[in-house]
Amino acid sequence: MVIGSKRTLVFALLLQFAASLSAHAQSCSVTSASGNYGSVDILAGGAVDTTSTFTVTCSGCALGCTVNACVQFNQGAPNSSSSVRSLGSGANTAIHELYTDSGRTQVWGSWGYGTTAYGSGGVSINLSLPLLGGPAQQTLTVYGRFLANQQSTIPGTYVWSTASPVVAYAAYLLTSPNCSSNPGTTTNAGSSPWTATIAGNCIVSTTPLNFGNASLLTSNIDGVGTISVKCTNTTPYSIGLDNGLHASGSQRRMQAGSSFINYNLFTDAARSGAWTSTTSATTCTSGANTCVLGTGTALIQNVSVYGRVPPQTSPPPGAYADTIVVTVTF
C-alpha cells in the first residue's frame, strides 16, 4: 500500500506539472531589424556591408521551461527573382543579402513558418525561462551586404520591405522541436525596412593634348586630347573647360618662362565651337556647342578635345605648357 501510494503521488505530480505547462501559454515577441547601407558609391563597384541587431523575448512558463525559437527572414519585397533579395526604387532594383555570420557566407533564410520560405532556413535558438514565468531574451545580429558589381544601377533611394524577422516558437521539456518541422506559434516584427541611397556621380580622367614640335607658327597647328567620363546610369552631365593658368582675358595661352603661345580649344573637329565653362548639367550656358553634353551609361565615355595653335609671332624656343581644369557638372 505504501509503494502504491508513492506511485500514485508521482503520477499525480506529473499530471499537475503537465497541466500547469499547458495552462500558462508561452508567448514570444521580436523587435524590428531595420538596416541602412547609407550612400552607396555605385561606380566603385564594391560591396557595402552593414549590420542590424534585434531581440527575441519569450515568457509564460510558471514552472520554468525552455522555448525553442526559429528565427526567420523571408525574401521580402520587391521580388525580382526567387533566388535574391532586391531593394526597389520605382521600377528599378538592386540586390542585397542577409547573412547569419560576419563573414557573410551563410544566408539567413526562412523555413516558411508564418511567412514565405527563402533559402535553406533560418536560425534556431533556445531560451530558458525561469520559474514564475519571467521573460528570457536573446539579442541577435543580422549581417547585410549590398552586393558588388552593380555599377549599372540607376540612382535613387532603394528600399527592401519585410515583416521579418519572423519567429516560430514552442516550449519543450526534454527534446527541442526541430525547426525543419513546424514548431508551433509564430510572431513577427511588423516592419523592418532596409534602405540604400545611390546618388548620381561621375568620374573623370584625361590624356594630354600635345601640339608637337614646331619652329615657326605661320600656320594652324592642330592637336587632339581626350577626356574620359564615367557617370552613373541615366545621369545627365556636361563637360566645361576653364581658360587655364596663363590666360589673357578669354585667350588661352601656354607659357615658357616669360613667353607665351596663344591656343584655342573646341568641341568639334571643324574647330568652330569654342569650348568654355558651363554651370548646367543639361545645357551649355554660354551657348550651343560651347560645352559637351552627355548621359551616363555607367561605362567610360571618351570625348575628344580639339586644339589649335593659330598663326602668330613665333616666340623664343622652349617647352610651352598650360593646365586646363575640366569640370563635369551632373
Automatic annotation (TrEMBL):
The signal peptide annotation in the UniProt record is 1-25
Q: Which SMART domains match?
A: SCPU (SM00972)
**In this record, what's one Pfam family?**
SCPU
**Limits of the Spore coat protein U/FanG domain:** 17-158, 195-327
Q: Which UniProt keywords apply?
A: Capsid protein, Signal, Virion
What domain of life is recorded for the organism? Bacteria
Q: Which InterPro entries match?
A: Spore_coat_component, Spore_coat_U/FanG
Q: What's the protein here called?
A: Spore coat protein U domain-containing protein
Q: What is the lineage of its organism?
A: Bacteria, Pseudomonadati, Pseudomonadota, Alphaproteobacteria, Hyphomicrobiales
